[in-house]
Write a structure and sequence with these properties.
- The protein contains 4 helices and 12 strands; from the N terminus they run βαβββαβββαβββαββ.
- It has 255 residues and is α+β, with helices and mostly antiparallel strands.
- The protein has a domain of 116 residues.
- It is globular, with a radius of gyration of 19 Å.
Length: 255
């Protein structure tokens, strides 16, 4: 599948990074993101080859674009609740910073993190593009709990449709708020991109079939022929290429 203009060219780099301590792992990563973002590189993925504090950070750049990127963070107490999360996200979003990750915990004490009062807070990381002049707002919804897979799929379809009407698109279908509150749904609204397109939700039944690749390949091609794109939310499809990143994992390219 090729979504970009055929004349668009990309370059990728890998940046070696060594953290000075465990408590420096996140800050060394964020610093590396901002350093490479100045030159137009967006973060893709990190690899830790061993138990040492050495990392490889991968970045991608659109050579036909002159955008630069900055990265920022928000910190939440270990006992995260959904209101706290949305408040932090909306504060960052009002500054034009869009969430790309919500999975890391900070280990250690650091004066600017929650006034040095909390150990192991959970961290929101976001990206700001020099070419984006709008804001982001967020909504959180609990994942449907209906008893059957089909009922859950129908409930999720209804929920996604309702949010899309308000300009919100799914950006995570498996957001873990805490150890006991998992698989929430996070929706995001971009003030510069109000048409989020449409979404189609399939039952998770296909993932219980064997061999799974046979069924997935068939679905990819069938849906692709009628304009539906596979998203990284697995059983959610979209007809807008900008909506194919429907879960918060690595490879969060924003433009």
């Amino acid at each position: 599948m090729k979504l970009a203009n055929q004349n668009t060219r990309y370059s990728a780099i890998v940046s070696d990074r060594t953290a000075s301590s465990i408590s420096n792992i996140y800050f060394s990563w964020l610093s590396n993101l901002n350093e490479n973002g100045k030159s137009g590189y967006q973060f893709l993925h990190s690899v830790r080859p061993s138990t040492d504090l050495n990392f490889k950070d991968y970045f991608l750049k659109n050579e036909n674009d002159n955008a630069s990127y900055t990265y920022d963070s928000g910190y939440l107490s270990p006992l995260v609740d959904t209101n706290q999360l949305i408040n932090v996200l909306n504060k960052l979003g009002q500054e034009g910073c869009r969430i790309i990750q919500f999975k890391q915990y900070f280990t250690g004490n650091h004066v600017e993190i929650l006034d040095n009062k909390e150990n192991q807070p959970k961290i929101v990381t976001c990206i700001n593009s020099s070419k984006h002049n709008g804001t982001y707002t967020y909504r959180y919804k609990d994942y449907p709990t209906e008893s059957t897979r089909l009922e859950r799929a129908l409930a999720l379809q209804s929920m996604i449709n309702a949010q899309a009407k308000d300009g919100y698109r799914l950006v995570s279908r498996s957001l873990d708020i805490s150890a006991t509150k998992k698989n929430g749904l996070l929706f995001m609204k971009d003030s510069e991109e109000l048409d989020v397109g449409e979404f189609k939700v399939f039952s998770e039944e296909i993932f219980s079939n064997t061999p799974i690749l046979k069924y997935l390949n068939k679905r990819f091609n069938q849906q692709g022929q009628i304009g539906w794109l596979y998203t990284n939310a697995e059983f959610v499809y979209a007809n807008n290429p900008k909506s194919i990143q429907a879960d918060l994992n690595d490879f969060q390219i924003i433009e």
